[in-house]
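From the pipeline queue, job 12 of 40. The input is one protein chain; the requested action is below.

Action: predict structure.
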Amino acid sequence: MTKQIFINLVVKDLQKSMNFYAALGFTNNPQFSDDTAKCMVWSENIFVMIMTSDKFKAFATKPIADTKANLAGLFSLSLGSVDEVNNLMTKGLSAGGIEPSEMKDYGFMQQRTIEDFDGHTWELFYMDISKFPAQQINA
C-alpha cells in the first residue's frame, strides 16, 4: 500500500469549509465523504478530512482545541512559485480566509499564512533550494 497522510480537522460549518478548501485547490473525494465529514484531496497521497465536532470526537482521545484562540498545529503546502503562493492566497482570502501576518521572505523561501474559518493555520510557501545558505563544515 502507498503511504498517505490524512490531516483530520474539526470544523463548525462543513459546507463552508469545503468551499474554502476547494478555493485553495483541494478537490472533494465523495467516496470518503458524507454529511459528517468531507475528504479534501491535495495530491495523490495527501488528504485533509474536515469533520463535524461529533464525528471528530469519535476519533479524539483528548479535548478538542479551540483553534480560534490557540494554535494546534501548522500545516504547510509547497507551491511551484511565488506567483502560485500569491494566487492561492488571493483565492483563499476571497473564500473567507484571513491572513494573520505579512508575507515572510527567508531568501530561499517565501511564505504566506492563511487561517480557515475555524482558525486552522496553513502556510503556503515557495522554496528555491538553490538559494538555501550553504552550511559551513568545520574540519
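Job complete. Residues 3 and 45 are 7 Å apart (CA to CA).
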